[in-house]
Amino acid sequence: MKRVVSISLGSSARDHRVQREILGEQFIIERIGTDGDMDKAIKMFNDLDGKVDAFGLGGIDLYLYAGKKRYLLRDAKKIIKNINKTPIVDGSGLKNTLERRAIRHVNQKINLKDKKILMVCALDRFGMAEALKDIGAELLIGDLIFGLGIPVPLKSLDALHNIAQIIMPVVSRLPFKLLYPTGNKQEESRDKYSKYYQWADIIAGDFHYIKRYLPSNLKNKIVITNTVTTSDIDLLKQRGLNKLITTTPEFRGRSFGTNVMEAILVTLLDKPLDEIRVSDYLNILREIDFEPRLEEFNQDYLIK
Q1: What is the spatial distance between Cα 29 and Cα 265, in angstroms, rounded to a whole number?
Q2: 279, containing H or E segment
Q3: Which of helix, strand or coil describes residue 269?
Q4: Largest Cα–Cα distance of the chain, in whole Å?
Q5: Which end of the chain, N or C, is less surrounded by CB atoms within 10 Å?
Q6: Hey, is 219 helix, strand or coil?
Q7: Which domain of life is it from (predicted)?
Q8: Where are the domains of the chain?
Q9: SS3 256
Q10: CA angle in degrees (0–180, nearest 5) for 136-223-28
Q11: d(C-alpha 187, C-alpha 211), whole Å
Q12: Helix/strand/coil for 23
């Protein structure tokens, strides 16, 4: 029996545990939240190091990406610095593979070309953002809005890359809780920045960023995300969402984060992390045949 554990700075209210067979292997897959307590997360990682098959680092990214440049987040480095037996991943390998593939798959069902898409944080979902750009979607990039609270939308990935070169050397050293909702803040939602949501046909990216300022009316909107719980889905339904697409599949009512899914793939590949290539992820994804999950809440609505 393989065991994959995601330890997250997020809320423990979102914890989940399932048993699942994947490519003939039995897995126990767990997500454990530490309610924003970094010391607790560090202790848990240290206690389980060498006792599980792979770790997912949840609720925080190890790196943020802008084009070919990546920025190491100081707080994430603190959490994993003493882990030396169990491989640990933050989901970036899948954000660059599975999510690109998922966008192409979605585009076969829903024409994304020329759609207005609010990308809440492109530095976090660089593969998704680049795939949407390549398809010809009209992007509004919300990294400054949702990450730093600066109400300045960006209209291109090039603009984001230029700004990232200036601000990320400083931002990457800030306490992560200033950049992203952790702990109980993941359960909060307040209506702010509604004009950006209402402009969009589609809202895409990390669900905690989406939820943080979720407007009361999502009629005729589509959300492309992952890591949603049944209560998250109920919230989206209540606000009138038309379609929900998750880039990772559903496991017993829950779509896990990319860090969890990448940890599963690392376990199946059974190779040192520094030897795993993009082609390895792509090949095993084809074997598993993970497909995006699509839920329609209003069957009468059709995208124009």
Answers
A1: 12
A2: helix 278-288
A3: helix
A4: 53
A5: C
A6: strand
A7: Bacteria
A8: 2-90+255-288, 98-250+292-296
A9: coil
A10: 115
A11: 8
A12: coil
The predicted-structure confidence for 70-91, as pLDDT tens digits, reads as follows 899 999 999 999 999 999 999 9
The Cα 255–Cα 73 span in angstroms is 25
DSSP string, 172-209: TTS-GGGTS--BGGGG-----SHHHHHH-SEEES-HHH
How far is residue 230's CA from residue 242's CA, in Å, rounded to a whole number?
16
Helix, strand or coil, per DSSP, at residue 51: coil
Give the phi and the psi of residue 195 in degrees, each rounded to 5: -60, -30
Spatial separation of the C-alpha atoms in residues 59 and 15, rounded to whole Å: 12
CA–CA distance, 11 with 19 (Å, rounded to integer): 22
Question: What residue has token string 């997360």?
Answer: 41
Distance from chain centroid for Cα 13: 18
Cα gap 33→120, rounded to integer Å: 23
Report which DSSP code applies to 289: T
Q: pLDDT tens, 202-240? A: 999 999 999 999 999 999 999 999 888 889 999 999 999
Q: List the CATH code of the domain at 98-250+292-296.
A: 3.40.50
In three-state secondary structure terms, 257 is coil
- 205 — phi, psi (to 5°)? 125, -165
Asked if residues 83 and 173 have their Cβ atoms less than 8 Å apart, the reply is no
What integer pLDDT is reported at residue 289 of this predicted model? 77
Residue 121 confidence class, pLDDT cut points 50, 70, 90: very high
